[in-house]
Amino acid sequence: MNCRACGGTTCKAFDLHNSRHGIDVPVYRCRTCRAYWSDGGPVDYDAVDLTGYYMAHAAPIRARYARLFEHLASLREPGRFIDIGAGIGFSVELAAAHGWQARGLEPNRYLAEHARQRGLDVATGYLDEQTNGQYDLVLVDNVLEHILHPLPFLRLAAGLLSDDGLMVVAVPPLDWLRDALGRSSWVRARVSRPQLNVFTEADEHVNMLSRAAMLRLARAAGLRPLPVRFHPSRVYDNPVFRALRLDDGYYHFTRL
Ligand SMILES: [Zn+2]
Predict the structure, then answer these.
(1) DSSP, res 10
(2) Which of 149, 148, 165 is nearest to 222 (CA)?
(3) Rounded to the nearest whole angstrom, what is the distance from the C-alpha of residue 119 to the centroid of ligand 1?
(4) In angstroms, rounded to a whole number, what is the distance separating the alpha carbons of residues 106 and 109?
(5) CB 38 within 8 A of CB 16
(6) How far is the CA of 29 from the centre of ligand 1 (A)?
(7) Helices 90-97 and 58-73 meet at what angle, rounded to 10?
(8) How close is the Cα of 30 to the center of ligand 1, in Å?
(9) pTM score, two decimals?
């Protein structure tokens, strides 16, 4: 497998066992980008009704988006907003509450339907060449780690940005500490907290993106990183965290 960020050769790092499908997923690492890649398992994002999961976690998810939109208010005037992979539409709800003209795109029809029933503008579907519009804010929130071809996906997302548009991308962070922990087979087998073990969803998470890999992908997709640091939780954004160069997995981009 070649690295999905730099195109260079990778080395097999280990197999991840996925108990849901009873398969071993080979995981490859790029020495240049220090990112991990796999082909994952057989996943159909439309097959399962995930509304129960989202409703059970509604309060913390809404709180996270509330903090995100408070933060974004310091960067941009409200305008047109799209969330790619909008889930049940909580981001769309919070964006609208902060004055954005908000819509979402969500491949899981149960989630999209639930959002529409709540009066939100969430279309069922994947991001593709048919997706059009110009947006002042594009959110790609914990989506990129699921995408087998992240570069064409990011290019399509970048194509939705208005001239001064802002893209916010969040992925599970992979820094030196998470890398070291993830290399330990003991951690991989026994630690289920995704903050400490980035290899928790072997079938779904096909890209484990280091900051180097994320920035390479973004540049190749025509995006320029902004020097903005944000995380909704103080646990992940504090002086100790910064001094140790731990990553928070949040990125802000504009067009190149
Ligand atoms: Zn690479």
Answers:
(1) -
(2) 165
(3) 43
(4) 7
(5) yes
(6) 8
(7) 40
(8) 5
(9) 0.95
What is the arrangement of strands in the sheet containing 11-18, beginning at the earlier edge strand?
Answer: 11-18, 23-29, 36-37, 207-208
DSSP secondary structure string, 22-38? TEEEEEEE-TTT--EE-
Q: List, in sequence order, every beta strand (DSSP E) within 116-198.
A: 122-124, 135-141, 161-170
* Contacting residues for 10 by C-beta, under 8 A, at least 6 apart: 1, 2, 3, 28, 29, 30, 31, 37
- The neighbourhood of ligand 1, an ion, using CB within 5 A, equals 3, 5-6, 8, 30, 32-33
Strands lying side by side in the sheet with 122-124: 122-124, 101-106, 80-84, 135-141, 161-170, 250-255, 223-225
- Residue by residue, pLDDT tens for the chain (256 residues) are 999 999 999 999 999 988 888 899 999 999 999 999 999 988 888 888 999 999 999 999 999 999 999 999 999 999 999 999 999 999 999 999 999 999 999 999 999 999 999 999 999 999 999 999 999 999 999 999 999 999 999 999 999 999 999 999 999 999 999 999 999 999 998 998 888 899 988 889 999 999 999 999 999 999 999 999 888 777 777 888 888 888 889 999 999 9
- Residue 220 CA to ligand 1 center (angstroms) comes to 12
Strand partners, 251: 169
107 Cα–ligand 1 center, Å: 29
- Ligand 1 centroid to residue 141 C-alpha, Å: 22
Q: In this structure, which amino acid lies at residue 190?
A: R
